[in-house]
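Field: COMPLEX_INPUT
Field: COMPONENT_COUNT = four
Field: RESIDUE_TOTAL = 554
Field: MODE = joint
Values follow.
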Amino acid sequence: VANPLTMKLEQFTAFSQEERQRLDQLLTYPIRTFKRGETIIREGQKVDNVHLVHTGLAARSKSLADGSRQFMALLIPGDLCDVEVFILEAMDHDIVAVSDTSCVLIPAKVMEELLTQSTSLTKAMWWSTMTDSAILREWIVDHGSRDATERLAHLFCEMLIRYRVVGETTDDSFPFPLTQEELADATGMTPVHVNRVLQHLRTEGLIDLKGRSMTILDPDALKRVAKFEAVYLHLIRTARRDPEVSGRAGDLVPASHKGMLSGALDKVKASFGNSQD
Amino acid sequence: VANPLTMKLEQFTAFSQEERQRLDQLLTYPIRTFKRGETIIREGQKVDNVHLVHTGLAARSKSLADGSRQFMALLIPGDLCDVEVFILEAMDHDIVAVSDTSCVLIPAKVMEELLTQSTSLTKAMWWSTMTDSAILREWIVDHGSRDATERLAHLFCEMLIRYRVVGETTDDSFPFPLTQEELADATGMTPVHVNRVLQHLRTEGLIDLKGRSMTILDPDALKRVAKFEAVYLHLIRTARRDPEVSGRAGDLVPASHKGMLSGALDKVKASFGNSQD
DNA sequence: CGTCGGATTGAAGATACTCAACATGAGTGG
DNA sequence: CCACTCATGTTGAGTATCTTCAATCCGACG
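Field: COMPLEX_OUTPUT
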């Protein structure tokens, strides 16, 4: 099985043979599995292993006094749960398993070495955490400025790309273990309203969601509905270096952003359908 | 004038004389001023200086196609605008000046040295970025799970603490240059509704907002209204080491979280009124 | 076949939005 | 010094989106 973390980080830089090896060695550490619904890490907990999601889906979650629950991030294979560990006293939120999930438990020390030995790896890890922050910011935009339909559509667009990066898509389908209630927790809506908006997206022929699997039927249309701009995922560097990123043609970077890049962009290919804006 | 960055980072660790000096030297770099409303850094821009907010208030902002605007973070003195610089190709959002604002332009190279030479400083910077992420997550909770009143109240609680940390409070007052429209951009509400909720908070005797200055009249009550839990700001370490943090008595850490700390907590004092939960 | 989690549907109601008018107050120029 | 302007704050009325609370349906699984 491929290492999703390696795949993700290679969106940012190409690694040397040795670096790739070092990353792949991470998978030799003990794996712990969690049942759907289990808490992987609890708020207040002081962890001394870094949890790397290997299979399944997890979520950063906060539970409020009134019983409501809010997801702040979804963690797919290749995502780290708790880089905070090195610095902070304890977690300020929970990590919960949304589907049956397995995590590689990387000893903090090993992680620390990894972060200090190779500049390339260090930078790649930095990139990963900055991108995570960018996703958090985008979620704030979702919640603050997009209506229910846009919000769900935007989430699906984001997930399609992120899953594609770690090679878990087939065409425009990807695993989708979230119940409508969990989807509500992620988007700040009620389950009832999630249901209605989903039906709307279905009848519009945009998505096909059934049996824990999501298929984006019309990526471009969904992207338009969501007002989705992939720039915040920062998949650009690799795109420039390696046009074959994920096998599908398509210009990730909207024309208006081309100025962002220093070099020529003629061959930028990326992972979200053909874009024409 | 004191260095707000130093003050902030000292919430996390105590620095050596030399380290403090090094931080203070940052203020010798050129300062650039921005008028209220100006864009400090634009989306797509590739910056080669790190902007450190010195005076005033700035915001991370995204403008959507429909003309709406969403703030994702408020940057007060001591906050860095663009650590991304080292890694990412370009900014994925704007930084705008909410009031007249001055920034210290720290050459990327200098920053990089700072980040690699002293372990203590490196860790403190890490802490800062992790805390920033924690704030982003809390904003998602604000937008997703709190109603308008809670959301505003929560923001005010957060700002009180953050301003106190950098020494810009007098009692429970702090600078508040945001217009109601900008407050709406920050909270994902309409200006009209912001206005009404503000009036509500005023008549409840919780806040006194006038002339670009905010006074929290009843911190405990406001905290209760907001369901505010300061844990996510991660001001704990210092609290344990230095009971005098910011001069006011009060237990920052609710009893339910005391398990988080390894050591004894009898003398934890912090910056948000007396807490009894 | 019955149970249980999850999905779906209906109807009523609340929070927050839209649009539009009006008030206030600081600054500006005549 | 007053008239004007402009940005900000305030108020009202009608409305939309989304919520709440149920009830019902469906499919997987023992």
